[in-house]
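User: Round two. Same drill as before: sequence, then structure, for each protein.

Assistant: Same drill it is. First protein:
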Amino acid sequence: MESMSFPIRLCSILLMAASTILGQGFSFGVKGGVPLTDALHVLDRSRYFSDKAPYVIGPAVELRLFAGLSAEADLLYRRVEYTFTDQVTPQVVSRTTGRAFELPVLVKYRAPGELFRPFVSAGFSYRRLARFEQRLSTGGISGTVQVSEPPELTNRSTSGATVGGGIEVSVPLVRVSAELRYTRWGSSSFRSALSGLASQLNQADFLLGILF
């Protein structure tokens, strides 16, 4: 019985510590902002045109650890859009719209401070592309269809390294942050047959956050 009591006590201590941490250091909220770079890199502008996503937004959670360290995870959404014009038949134009869902998992360090606290963060991000629609226009006649695999899409999922930095303002019950975040994706998700379109591997965003 004595040999079994130590693991039981250890599990009890860990459970109580976890509940204390979650009760005192867990925050949730939302982050959103403006992409500073286009999601796509157009190599052949005679055939492709890409629209920069107007915004990026999603929920965020954070677990404060110790000595200014915390762990953060977000689920960010942005739109991906591009237009293709057939050079052989110029009246044939297709406009493809997709959704990009990104999951950054970061370790954050805050400098000491009462009201204003600068911070830096680093970690990894995972991206998944989904829900594509394609609007075809031929000689003035147009229609929208669901497409599971656009011809330019080569890989729905990719991952990369993420770093960021900014400043956080603490007011009663709320923490407001502003940050610049950079992600270097490991591979391109789009590639046209003649290399006219590819994913932007360097991604930069300006984000505002509100955590409770």
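Second protein:
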Amino acid sequence: MKNYAKPLSRLISELSKLPGIGTKSAQRLAFHILSLRDEEAFAIADAINDAKKNMKYCSVCANLTDVDPCMICSDVERDRSIICVVESPKDVSAFERVREFRGLYHVLHGAISPMDGIGPDDINLKQLIIRLQQNDIKEVIMATNPNIEGEATAMYAARLIKPAGIKVTRIAHGVPVGGELEYADEVTLSKAMEGRRDL
């Protein structure tokens, strides 16, 4: 960034650390931020500062929240006998957008990945087991990602949970809505066949 003044170079450098933001996108964002009125730019900085200071993990489900327990765990209308296990807070947001699931969540903050040195003790799995022992849970839905790490995590968790007599299910995987069969890979088609249901 030799062509830019130090403050602008620093801003571009920091923005380029964000996921999905390359140098060109960081430059566009930096120039856009500098073109904003002072109050607009400071509002962005204040929002980042506020989120960093006030967001924490729910002591029950480990989702991101500003109150503890979070709004989902505190909602008395939700079905407390079902827990949906996800890898990240972003997954909770995805399910909540659909508005179909009315149970509770448990966020693992990762998935088992021996290649990356991440084992069962490195994710929020112990807390899930403790939670299951302390509550009357009838079903655990494993909603980890449909990749090798997500499958390994789901299988490992299922082996820990099933001896307690709790039903463990896995979300269905398969052909996405709007997708075409000819472009689907073998694993996707196989999962679609396994997850078929009555019409």
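The mean pLDDT is 92.

User: Perfect.
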